[in-house]
Specification:
Arc Repressor Mutant, subunit A; Endonuclease, Chain A; SH3 type barrels; five-stranded mixed beta barrel
């Protein structure tokens, strides 16, 4: 038996539960076509006294068909048909084992690491599908065609910021970037020629970091990190929205129209959205709901009221909004200021802000 036949024989015996005689008969029929049972014994090493038993067994396993004529003959079922049930079981097992692997890889740790690109891609799609309120994304220009449709499926109520990295210099204008294929991937889209990893931070709670992705100019080992530590996710979120965002230029989207209601986790994002609505000139007043903390009492609060004013400057880390709160007991308005993360100056610190029409 030559090396190729020896390899196939071992595969059939080891992986498809055939006996040595069954593997020998099946390969003989594949190679020689329809044969009488007697002729099969002449062409193979199957003993004459075992030939009918081996053929019957192969038929039950779906590898041959026996023709009930005189003398009895048999022919091989094509490999793609004979092996398909086993392949289906393998595919099903891979899927179920992958689910088990994902669960186990995350058990007891805030970071799961993957080298397999298909696993990384699966986590990328899952994290996009599970966004609740807000997402900050750093994504390379070279992968937009492949993954753009995934981002386009995000709900319009999710506030999304996308920084497209690795953009070729020839696409970058003096003040903006013409990149229509990316303009619909998020509510706010900007771009930079800088090379950055894939980062997707959902709701400041979970994050996917992908380094060595196919979009890198210099090829190196691909590694994905699924991060469930809210502290680490928060840091990556701030890297995109506070640092990387300042180094980008807007990607022009002539079709962009602000949508309400809209929920934010960052005070500056909220104010930027308010400014975009005011620029449209379609809304005179806004109603604001804030889930946060009383900075004096350090107690959770939920407040709501009409937006009266706001403050933000690129050169100032401080930003806040001013609300007119309705007090049901007195029937009068109280004025309150609402700031962002870790504020100690405003009346309230916002953890989540929702803008609605009045």
């Amino acid at each position: 038996m030559d090396d190729a036949k020896g390899f196939l024989h071992r595969v059939l015996v080891s992986n498809f539960s055939l006996s040595n005689y069954e593997a020998d008969m099946y390969m003989t029929l594949l190679q020689n076509g329809k044969q009488s049972i007697t002729d099969i014994t002449n062409l193979s090493e199957v003993p004459r006294q075992r030939a009918y038993d081996v053929a019957d067994s192969l038929q039950k396993k779906g590898f041959v068909e026996i023709i009930d004529e005189y003398p009895k003959s048999a022919y091989a079922v094509p490999p793609e048909d004979a092996l398909q049930p086993v392949q289906d079981d393998i595919d099903k097992a891979i899927s179920q084992l992958s689910e088990l692997h994902q669960t186990e890889s995350q058990f007891g740790t805030d970071i799961a690491m993957f080298n397999n690109e298909s696993t990384i891609e699966k986590y990328l799609r899952n994290i996009i599908d599970d966004i609740d309120t807000s997402v900050a994304i750093s994504f390379p220009y070279q992968l937009i065609e492949q993954y753009g449709p995934v981002f386009n499926n995000m709900s319009s109520e999710v506030h999304s910021k996308l920084a497209v990295s690795n953009i070729p210099e020839e696409l970058i204008g003096e003040r903006s970037i013409e990149l229509p294929s990316a303009s619909s991937m998020a509510a706010e889209v900007r771009g930079t020629p800088k090379e950055e990893p894939v980062i997707i931070c959902a709701d400041r709670e979970v994050c996917l970091l992908w380094i060595g992705h196919p979009g890198h100019r210099i090829s190196h080992s691909s590694q994905g990190f699924y991060i469930t530590s809210s502290e680490l996710a928060f840091l990556f979120d701030r890297f995109i929205t506070d640092l990387l965002w300042r180094q980008t230029k807007p990607i022009h989207d002539p079709q962009y129209i602000p949508q309400l209601p809209q929920t934010f986790l960052r005070i500056k994002d909220c104010i930027e959205y308010i400014q975009s609505i005011r620029d449209e000139g379609t809304l005179e007043s806004l109603f604001v709901e804030v889930d946060g903390y009383d900075t004096q009492e350090q107690q959770p609060v939920f407040i709501s009221g009409e937006l009266l004013d706001y403050y933000t400057l690129d050169s100032d880390i401080r930003a806040y909004i001013v609300l007119g709160l309705q007090t049901s007991e007195e029937g009068s308005d109280n004025i309150a200021t609402v700031g962002g993360w870790n504020t100690g100056v405003e009346d309230y610190e916002a953890k989540q802000i929702t803008l609605r029409r009045t």
